[in-house]
Amino acid sequence: MSDLRVEKTKENIRETVLGIFMEKNIGDISISEVASQARISRKTFYSHYDSVHDVMTEIEEAILKNLEGIFYRNDFITDSSSVGDLFVSLNREIENNIDFYRRLVVTDFYHVFVYDMKELFRRIIAAKGKGGNEKKMGLYAEYLSGGVIAAYFSWFEGRIDLPLDDLSRHTSDIFWKGAEKLAEILER
User: Fold this and answer.
1) Which residues 6+ apart lie within 8 Å of 40 measured at CB?
2) 18, 30, 54, 181: which could form a disulfide with 49 (CB 3.0–4.6 Å)?
């Protein structure tokens, strides 16, 4: 079982890095700056993490784990109502962390995060579609995951001028059309 002090210190470091991240790129954040703002020593920082990038990786992993839970709770391959539920859940996640996502799209960490998120979504789509033509499943999983991620991140970048709920509704409709085709492939 983990020591509560260790968890609180790590949480303090993560929150501090996120706070600084809202104003600076990851590559521009120094360990001295994090330690100073977190009111810890550099030695304490190094006893928990090797670098600021390691802290961001841990934050990313927590976000991806949360998103993974959202994806697995919804049977979006065969149930159209679950597709809507999936996008409502994604909207809640986005609304809860809107400042983080808006900041993310203008930083040097953006491409790593988008790639990892797309891979997670692609893996889940492929896993939910096991049993069909694997080559076609792979193509649909790649297409659906890439499309959803691209639509949301284009919205964050301001290239799609819709309220978040409308984006979700339209993306859900488009996604369901692809998922219906995926279900047909599974039946063959």
Assistant:
1) 9, 12, 13
2) 54
